[in-house]
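Q: What structure does this chain adopt?
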Amino acid sequence: MSWKKHFQIAQTANEIAAQKQSVGNNSHVSTNKFTSWLKDVYSGAPNRTDRYAQYDMMDQDSDINAALDTISEFCTQFDYEHNLPFTIDYFQDPTEAEVSVLEKSLRQWCMINNWNKRAWRTFRNAIKYGDQFFIRDPETYQLEHVNPADVSKIIINESKGKEVEQYIVKNISLNVNDKVATDPLSTDAHGTPGKFSTGAFVQYASKQSGQQHTDNEIAVSASHVVHLSLSEGMDANAPFGTSILESVFKTYQQKTLLEDSIIIYRVQRAPERRIFYIDVGNMPANMAMQFVERVKNEIHQKRMPSRTGGGTSMMDASYNPLSMLEDYFFAQTADGRGSKVETLPGGDNLGQIDDLRYFTNKMLRAMRIPSSYLPTGPDDGTASYNDGRVGTAAIQEYRFNKYCQRIQQLLIESLDNEFKMFLKHKGVELDSSTFTLQFMPPQSFSEYREIEINNARAAVFSQLAEVPYLSRRFVLKKYLGLTDAEMVTNESHWEEENPDVAANQLGGASGSMANAGDLTSLGVDKPSPEDLDLANDLEAQPEDGGEEIDLGSEDGQVSPLGGAPNEIE
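A:
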């Protein structure tokens, strides 16, 4: 007898209930197997808004505040030529007209949004909270700041690669509400997610979806929102970003607790205390304790006259704290016995804060801040990086430079799209794929490296400049790294600065050779008078049937120009 063993996958109670509900509704039978289990409405981490308040609390710490300022300052450098926080990188050589139009448009866009003042704060808020939101005015293209805590939800269209459809924003101003507010997306009566159609989203603030209604929350279309985020879309908080302070939260808590304990220790143990030795002689134990209490009260109390006792003079005892300015008097016997007072010193380790310095350095290292920028000890910033060619630079500065560039690449994408939309709004017809908007590179290791390269090349060139058997042009090109165009430009500038010397070197040459740059300093000799005569003869050569000039050599060999042998008469 043969038999077959069948396996059946066990279903949970929720899966069974969902299956029954889908079967009961005929409209969902054909599309049930295509239902997506991913959510349509994203609100980020459950405590996202609470973390924003925690980030504000962390920002009050002096070390974290200085670290955020340092990162923002390095990532929002200004172009010295145009005084703008952005620059345009071209993928191909642009024309002068395109460069002029883009620079003019960029300056206008920066003036409308006041990026000269807002760039630093915008970048700082983005790395602090992980997100930075702006609502665009559709008429003026001016960006209005939105607090990240006011963005409660983001509605996503998963059928289009998790494309953002709407932002649910609260506490929005009335004029912006009239310009950009849209109707919330809705689903059917069952609120079943995953049907990617016009009703594929849970209607926000509606009774059908069972969500609580809030009057001050507005649905804003994603086409009017500029979202700067530190998320690449591959983390659990997407589409919301993750703050750079998230990785240092534990260290910050440890540092805060340690600071509090240090303060408590100094308050409790720093003051000196006194030890009173009271001589009780041979008194019994009970009388000895009474005598000690009486001396204690005499020391701790100060008797002052008072007239509040029915018109008669009375002595009131008030508390008298121990003071270092007061003297104490105790009687002693003839053999030296008696009471005495000794000083108990305070805490001995009041200046030892190595543990606090450890947690501070740990927190700054997690934020990639070089120790040379925020030093906490004499040994900070001693590690160096050697690339084997151009000298050394601080390895922490090198890593910090790369870290700033990564953050810039995450945040510039939204601003680049916004700038290109501004160009389209203004009627500028340019191919957006030929250029991109970029932050100015952070000032750090790259500039120092270029300076080191120039110093090393200049030192080598000074040593080889006077070698007689090396061409000057070869030395300039090999050891200074100059191109042919740069050498010609340098020669032209040299002639403008030294006109008298240049005239003497030309030696009275006429025609086009007189106007050409003298490249004798680069190893190119001036043409001789014979060469000039030969060039003039070539120009005067007749075109039709004239007598040709024999350019052959005297030994009868083939002429390099004429190609025929020269006969010797």
